[in-house]
């Protein structure tokens, strides 16, 4: 299977049903595969499209069955569509997904409109920012950095970003104004630091941009084995502690399994609003493209490595192993 759900390119052929695009157009492609006509697409929820994932779709949202709509390059459970880490890619429902790129913009200026910028922006939008709020972002990877940029677009007050790696926190300070917190000794210290920065209440909005694969110690790993769990919800749990009473937690990191001991009592006592899921990229992409076109946000400053497609294995390796200061890799299939 071809991986990659964050891609753009030049149109080489169009199907007979495609009316708004033609050969030679340069386009960005949102990462969900969505029809644009079903109930969920009509409600701006393309990640829940009823037609793009017919083999595994369903209302339950199970671990291995009844999944949501399809995603490019993201396993058979989500449609089995080949992704964009290739010289060519087939794009279904092309009248609904791809957007033409203005001539004055470079590829790297708009590439992240296909996934991580809409995803980061989703977390902030779910936070219902009106201006002046405190926002704590867990994870200074690509999505976390885009959430950081998005928080400033929505006039956040104090923005706090948390990570276990100092080089990623350094990158965060380079790309936007923020307070950084190093997750070193554990969640309790991080939560305490966030409360100290927010008059003891906790952040108005916490964003989980990590998901089920955080850095873990041996105890965390043993606990997961005993509970038959995949990964750990420790970052989500930290968000629920760090958010203020009546605050909002946005979950952008992926959680593919169920977890015991979920803090539902804390959720109830604090009156937390919890939102999560695949980002509705189609909903935001036009607004965000205008932000880029108008020069209100810069996206390509998070890129740390530019590689040819033939070097893809090296790109995956340095990102996974957190080597060479790797934050974001861009692949060129023709270099």
From TrEMBL:
Residues 142-213 form the Alcohol dehydrogenase-like C-terminal domain. Gene3D superfamilies: Medium-chain alcohol dehydrogenases, catalytic domain, NAD(P)-binding Rossmann-like Domain. Its cofactor is Zn(2+). InterPro entries: ADH-like_C, ADH-like_N, ADH_Zn_CS, GroES-like_sf, NAD(P)-bd_dom_sf. Keywords: Metal-binding, Oxidoreductase, Zinc. Residues 1-94 form the Alcohol dehydrogenase-like N-terminal domain. Belongs to the zinc-containing alcohol dehydrogenase family. This is Alcohol dehydrogenase catalytic domain-containing protein.
